[in-house]
Amino acid sequence: MRITLTVNGEERRLDVEPRRTLADALREDCGLTGTHLGCEHGACGACTVQVDGTAVRGCLLFAVQCDGSTVRTVEGLAAADGTPHPLQTAFSHEHALQCGFCSPGFLMLTAAALDEDPAVADDPDRLRELLASNLCRCTGYAAIRRAVRRAAGSGGTEPPAG
Amino acid sequence: MKPAAFAYTAASTLEDALRELAAAPEESHVLAGGQSLVLEMNHRAVRPTRLVDINTVPHLGLLQTDDAPDDGARLRVGPLVRHRAFEQPVDEGPLGRLLALAAHCLAHPPIRARGTMLGSLAYAHPTAEWPTLAVTLGAELDLRSVLGHRTLAAEEFLAGPFTTALAPGEMLTEARFPVLPSATGVAFLEHRPTAAGFAVLSVAVALRVADGTVVDARIGLAGAAPRPVRAPAAEGLLTGRPPTDEAITEAAAASAETVADPPADPPAGIPFRQHAVRVLTQRALHRARDDLTERT
């Protein structure tokens, strides 16, 4: 089927089988391999991308369902001049990645959440609920929490417990 | 893994979707949120050869409270209402609070942004949140096909794990939840080993109290039986009495008797499930009582 996606501001005309997931279409048909695939059943969140501003699992959505949609991937997170997104800078500062496999998913998840409501960084329960969406096997999440708080301008330190 | 090949149709109206389903009822599947269907397809546990996408149909996102002519108000939920619509209370009363408690237990934000309540009911996972609440609260479900329309109680609709009354060619078009009276305390609790995956057990409670006495007790259990069930013995022990600690302890013990033929997955033996049902029910009843006292 012929579809058109706007990926990171660029119009992409693709001819895909209906069974092509959005994540595979981005990787295989658009050559954007920053979106990673881990489990392919919605559990790990490595394939999280934004469709029309909402963070979704790229493995649980068919590309044909996104015809006419705007898709943002990790390749579209930095500014056009190459300046990293505040979350990318914060992930680096706070050592919020080790192997980096989960990072694209975490970045797209948290970028969408901060765009929607930056106050999520100041609410420990909401932040925990958000970060529980994706799996990271390296960091133990504390550094990712700090990075999101830093990017939101809340400082990199943890809020008091409770 | 990748799904097997299928033909894809984006429906333009509900009638169009039903016609598409009727063209090959046994091979077709409705695609709404897809957050369970697509993962099952990725595993090739299900292999529909035709998908009828209803995301392209306008006006399926109905979410509103209507006064029923005979018996009180109903919350009406259409086929494209996503889980996240319930994260904030959809009404000011106990129903909105109870749905929000369950919504926050349900998967995680990206799944809640796509998955739908009616899709979850049609998937019928034995410990999924919406089927549990639908049984607890006595929701009504509308099923539609080109042949016509029928309405079933959630209890009749949910036949067992991943098994419903949906016939080939039929789709769920609306769920209706009775709006709970304001003097109702609610709670929803799950037992789950990790934040990922489905709960082993869950308990939903709605306690309506008048003049210090329980006049309507609803206790719904998931993970106790092949499908969500109510605990009538426990409800009976509470009704007509004040919700004292003693009454709650007795009702919680009685709720454990509901455990029979529980789901095999995740593995948990009957003695464990009985114990956990009792503990969760006791906690949920205390919370429901606290919920009521906090607001009156």
Automatic annotation (TrEMBL), chain A:
It comes from Actinacidiphila acidipaludis. Residues 1-77 form the 2Fe-2S ferredoxin-type domain. Pfam families: Fer2, Fer2_2. InterPro entries: 2Fe-2S-bd, 2Fe-2S-bd_dom_sf, 2Fe-2S_ferredoxin-like_sf, 2Fe-2S_ferredoxin-type, 2Fe2S_fd_BS, Beta-grasp_dom_sf, Diverse_Oxidoreductases. This is (2Fe-2S)-binding protein. Keywords: 2Fe-2S, Iron, Iron-sulfur, Metal-binding, Oxidoreductase. Gene3D superfamilies: 3.10.20.30, [2Fe-2S]-binding domain. PANTHER family: OXIDOREDUCTASE WITH IRON-SULFUR SUBUNIT. The keyword ATP-binding does not apply. It comes from the Bacteria. CDD domains: fer2.
From TrEMBL, chain B:
The keyword Magnesium does not apply. SUPFAM superfamilies: CO dehydrogenase flavoprotein C-terminal domain-like (SSF55447), FAD-binding/transporter-associated domain-like (SSF56176). Residues 1-182 form the FAD-binding PCMH-type domain. Pfam families: CO_deh_flav_C, FAD_binding_5. Keywords: FAD, Flavoprotein, Oxidoreductase. This is FAD binding domain-containing protein. It comes from Actinacidiphila acidipaludis.
